[in-house]
Amino acid sequence: MPEISIETLRERLNERLPEKCKELKPHFDGVPVLSLRKGSILPLTAPHHMIYIATLESGRKVVVRVMNPTIRKYAGEKCPFKMTSEIATMKYVRKHTKVPVPEVLAYDPDKDGKVGGEWMVMERVHGVAAILMWPALSKELRRKLTLAMANVFAQLLKQRFSKIGSLYEEGEDSFVVGPMALIPSHDKIDRSVPDDEKCGPFGSQKDWLLAVAKGDLDVGRDRPLQGEDLERMKEVIKEIEEADLLDDAADHSKIALEHVDLNLTNVFVNPDFPTEITGVIDWEGARTAPMWAIQPRFFERTWKMYEVEKQELHAFGYELIRLRVSAWNAGGREPGWELRNLLREAQERRVNPSKVEDAVASLARLSLQVDEERLRREAFRRSETPEPEDRRY
């Protein structure tokens, strides 16, 4: 398996950037990759990428992400168009919303293979990862930061698309929905990737759910279903085909943009004003999806929080989102709950996973989804009568 050529990467950077690269340093687990204000640092790693900091002649530092072929043995395969879709999404969000997103300065697919993997260059995000600031924040500041994240979420919900999939560039400043760019597996056993011809874009909710149920969007082991698993899949497919809830014209079925990992780890804030978001990162796997399927998970990786506080902040964030995007509010109640249950059945279509780790992972995902659904219901029960959408916080 080839390794990344630092010298070739430096040469390509000099060709693509307006300034020469005078220093290029790799960063690994636990090593700071972003130079942050007031001496703060953030370790940035990814199982499919190597991260470098390039120092330009002017002293400016930029972030370089390279698809890493050498450590891919520790993780699964990636979809071939993941990075191009990620870049298109970032450009789209910068153009059509006020969400702060790093500017993409360059991209190269490494067609000749001399670097060792496709790569992109981004501007450095100034600030601190919100997850690092969170423990020191007061209750009031946590509420304000939750509102700021809900505002980001609402801006993405307001975007409208005609198909379900992922974004790609189509000419200069033009975008199109294409195949769904799925997040790579973090399991080294998962060596298979979906057939891109089966990844969309999907013209209806039913087509998308059927693709999920059939395993067309699975990033994992290429293992055909047998016995009870196969029968269960057939039952789920029949349930989807006969579902009366799948109304593409309904408000809650409008197709919006989703950042699939919008939580405190991927939100940067101003350390002097920690409720001010300075950047949102990690757009890989972003997709266009029906609004009923898009639900916030702001505190998904925030383990040191009391359950009561999570419920209160979730309810607080949901309230702002539903006020800003009334169509999403309908998807939070009936029939949104039933539709999400249908999606969950499509995702968890196996009866008897053939390996113990599959069963454990399946139960963990189901437990998380049940928790999230309970939080959603509790949030909406606590919600008061909707106010006008132009309310400002």
From TrEMBL:
Residues 60-292 form the Aminoglycoside phosphotransferase domain. Gene3D superfamilies: 3.90.1200.10, Phosphorylase Kinase, domain 1. The lineage of its organism: Eukaryota, Fungi, Dikarya, Basidiomycota, Agaricomycotina. It comes from Gloeophyllum trabeum (strain ATCC 11539 / FP-39264 / Madison 617). The keyword Secreted does not apply. GO terms for molecular function: kinase activity. The keyword Lyase does not apply. Keywords: Kinase, Transferase. This is Kinase-like protein. It comes from the Eukaryota.
